[in-house]
Amino acid sequence: MVSRFGRAPGAWTLKHMQYAFPPDVYPVGRLDKDSEGLLLLTNDREIHYRLLHPRFRHEREYWVQVEGKPLEAELRPLREGIFLDGKPTLPAAVEVIETPVQLPRRIPPLPAWREENSTWLRIVLQEGRNRQVRRMTAAVGFPTLRLVRVRIQGLRLKTFTPEFAIKIPRHILYESLFGERVFRI
Question: Of 24, 32, 34, 44, which residue is the catalytic one?
């Protein structure tokens, strides 16, 4: 699915979901059509600004299935920061994790030989460049096979049902994203 409401020839978009989004709601950040997971939509301009402006760093956590079996030393450049498009990335938190059992099967599924020769990583970024995780893992020799965003700051994905949407009250969003208490009026 492409994370936009407009047209995307040959691709599913947000307008195809079985959820009645208000007309003034827009995605904050993007998931490309090959990625899965948490996508925040809002009509709150403050949230939009604070999550997209580079001045306001915030964590984005991904579960990433990569091709191959990286050694700790091969992951070190990701932890220290690498260069993409001639500019350094911020250091990322990277660790090898067990295969996330709660994820639905990948569609289309990977061939068995590819699945067996893969590793799952937990990667936490503080910035959000275009296809950053995919480009970073490829740069160290381990192309991304599957990418799932599971967290933005304190907002964590709790269900992995495709095309599932819920409405989150504003005060909970501000507390989860920024640690701020917002009084309901």
Answer: 32
Give this prediction's pTM: 0.90
Does position 65 have pLDDT exceeding 60, yes or no?
yes
Residue appearing with tokens 């740069």: 139
Residue 53 CA to residue 65 CA, distance in Å, equals 28
Could you tell me if residue 6 is inside a domain? no
Q: Provide the number of structural domains found in the chain.
A: 1
> In the 8-state DSSP scheme, what is residue 140?
T
Q: How many helices (H) and strands (E) does the chain have?
A: 5, 10
Percentages (nearest 5) of helix, strand, coil residues in the chain: 25, 25, 50
Cβ contact 25:42 at 8 Å:
yes
Examine residue 52 and state whether it is found in any structural domain, yes or no. Answer: yes
Quickly state the pLDDT bin for 14 (edges 50, 70, 90): confident
Which residue range is the domain that position 140 belongs to? 14-178
3-state SS, residue 144:
strand
CATH code, 126: 3.30.70.1560
Cβ atoms 88, 82 nearer than 8 A: yes
In the residue annotation, 44 being an active-site residue is answered as: no
Helices (H), 71-143: 72-80, 112-116, 132-139
